[in-house]
Amino acid sequence: MRVLYLAAEAVPLIKVGGLGDVAGSLPRALRRLPVKPDVRLVIPFHGGTDRSSLKVEPVAAFTLPTTTDTQGVEVFAADVDGLPVYLIAGSMLPPEAPVYAHPREDAYKYTFFSLASLELARVLDWWPDILHANDWHTAPALYAVWLRRRYEAVYGGLSTLLTVHNLPYLGSGAEEALQAFGLPPAEEGDLPKWARHLPLPLGLMSADFVNTVSTGYAREILTPEYGLGLEDFLKRRQDTLFGIINGLDLEQWNPETDPNLPATFHQQNLAPRVENKLALQERVGLPLEAETPLLAMIGRMDHQKGVDIAIEALHDLEDCPWQAVILGKGDAHIEAAATELEKTFPQRVRVRIEYNAPLGNLIYGGADMLLIPSRYEPCGLTQMIAMRYGCVPVARETGGLADTVCDYDRCKDSTGFLFSEPTARSLIFTLRRALTVYGDQRRWKPLQQRGMRRDFSWQRSAEEYYQLYQALLKRKPSDTIER
Ligand code: ADP
Question: Relative to the CA of 21, which ligand 1 atom is closest?
Fold first, then answer.
């Protein structure tokens, strides 16, 4: 089985968010399955790519037609831990551009990347059985296959899968870029009119199978609350819509070996963990207090992540002892609100507006609770990393968070705390529950240990993806519904 896996980012080469973790780990986990599918990864050759420990070699050069001219494509290859990775460069992928920037520039960049990846398979004479795209950035490749199937037999034999990591990122502003590369708005099919020129909806229409990154989110996007007006369209293709939870790279995220932790630890001996907590307090300049509950947040400061909900909740939770560390960057208003919280509680709160992976690891390995008040969460990795590091998640009951965290008062095998409404009130109620349990370490430690024992490895998810690939290949050509 040959699979060409397309993504905008992938560890260890380049990472901005969870997609980078997934695209770096899943192809490698698939290749490690006993059946050893030949999975190959394609990502753009971003300027920020870390190539320090890699041998990167040019392997192909070709041109890509647009409606008015042609664009040069250069392809480089690297071997990442046994995984063949192709890096696409070209004038439309300027090295100085960040991974994600302005919608219009991104649209040109990723449409170019999507079509160049498709062309690469032809140029390398390595034609895949399955084209696996991720999010709006690579969805144009699926739409191109869908259009070309009508007149080029080779595309008829290519099965396609779209993984949706975040539905609201539709790729708005891409109409002009799609047109420039000969991808017109969809004229037929039953996509709502407003969505017929947007990359992600076009990908949803074109892909043979679609999956989201948790079963909970796969159900939620069929509702008006999460479906963005695409819910009726998605309901009509429910028989080919699946949910597979993301895994974690357990070698990368390992509290027993993590070099960022002053004290590594094991679930049977959590005692050294307090050293990390003190080191974290020292690093960010909080009073060194081993017993005060240390709350943390790590992630993009985006409306989705509900950081504002947690900020409001902490303002109203003055009567309890706690400290908080907030690490993240993004929306200027949310950043300002976080900084304001630090000013209000200078003895309790530290905010770091930055992307800082080593500090992130120290937080996972030293903080007591991770607050994850997401308004929606397709999967979420931070709750899984937190559990693996004995940091108890206090999370909104939505999407992948609800699928992976078991609430203290509701399950025998509980691993954290869940709250249902995306409001400060709901979070405060649950934080008080969590703080009460924290006050009784005989109950808290087993809760940490249960989280640490959970299996979040990629192995199980990779097997599920492999089964999905098999089902995809078994489908009859007539199953390719004209949507
Ligand atoms: P997203 O919606 O951003 O993909 P996820 O929870 O799936 O959210 O994954 C976020 C990943 O990025 C996690 O590995 C998290 O530790 C990391 N991360 C996010 N923001 C930061 C930051 N400011 N510093 C360090 N790591 C971060």
Answer: 14
Q: How far is the CA of 469 from the centre of ligand 1 (A)?
A: 28
Q: Which amino acid is at 455?
A: D
State residue 404's pLDDT score: 97
pLDDT at 483: 45
Determine which residue's CA is closest to atom 16 belonging to ligand 1.
Answer: 382
Atom of ligand 1 nearest to the CA of 383: 6
- Average of per-residue pLDDT across 208-236: 97
pTM of the predicted model as reported, rounded to 2 decimal places: 0.92
Query: From the CA of 166, how far away is ligand 1's center (Å)?
Result: 14
The gap from C-alpha 372 to its chain's centroid, in whole angstroms, comes to 15
Cα–Cα distance for residue pair 273/261, rounded to 1 Å = 9
**Total Cβ atoms within 10 A of residue 263:** 17
129-184: pLDDT as tens digits: 999 999 999 999 999 999 999 889 889 899 999 999 999 999 999 999 999 999 99
Q: Which residue's alpha carbon is nearest to atom 2 within ligand 1?
A: 18
Ligand 1 binding residues, C-beta < 6 A:
17-19, 21, 298-300, 327-329, 355-357, 360, 379-382, 385
* CA 381–ligand 1 middle distance (angstroms): 7
The pLDDT tens digits of the residues spanning 433-442 come to 999 999 999 9
Output the CA 181–ligand 1 centroid distance in Å: 33
